[in-house]
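Person: Please work through this fold.
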Amino acid sequence: MPVPSHPSATPDRQPQDAGERAAWRTRVQALAVAADGIRQASDRWDAISDSYCDEDGWPVDETGYADGKVARDAAAWEHVETFLAHGPDVLAGVRAAAQPADYLDGPISADLLRLRGIDSVLERAGEIHREWDQVIALMEGSMPGSRELYEEQAREIRNSEGWHYADELGYAGAALARAADHLTDRIGVDQSAHTGRVHAALTRSTSAQRDASAASPPASAASDPPAVRRSR
């Protein structure tokens, strides 16, 4: 009688691939929702910020203006936490799955180019998160009776410092989610040989982009042109 094989030992690893891709889709969807949430927080603030200011843009209702920014920053930071949880792994997966042709031309070439600075954005946001953890640890040991008051102040400072990086993730993070979604079918495929080739592919694609830019005028349209970013 034939011995049934273990599900994960099928010739093309389909069950394992399916599980990996399902987990991948969940993380990518979380990033897409987080990027959209950051943009919504920014748009909500932009829609009302002028009402707190005079014609020259100076706040006339300083309390309302400050409270509005605090609310924006707090809403955005919640989504930054999602990027800190899933962004680095998804970014690594995108870079492992993407091929040179994806950078040069195709539906995600513009999105891949937008990812060039996302490493530093995630790293700085991660530093703010770690600093916050350290502050809370100090509060727990030194000011248990008044921690609630100072914790709220510290939280507002963290969110305010994180706004710049949240704003960046609203756009670069959306590009990451789109690129990751496009590459879903490549997730779960053996990519052990890709790690060493990714850096070479990036180098080649960057050189090719520079050569193409020198030889021809820049493209007039992008797949997702950035919206006007007004948040102050």
About this structure: Residues 79 and 125 are 11 Å apart (CA to CA). Helices lie at 14-49, 62-97, 100-104, 109-113, 118-142, 147-182, 195-215. The chain has a mean pLDDT of 81. The first helix runs from residue 14 to 49.
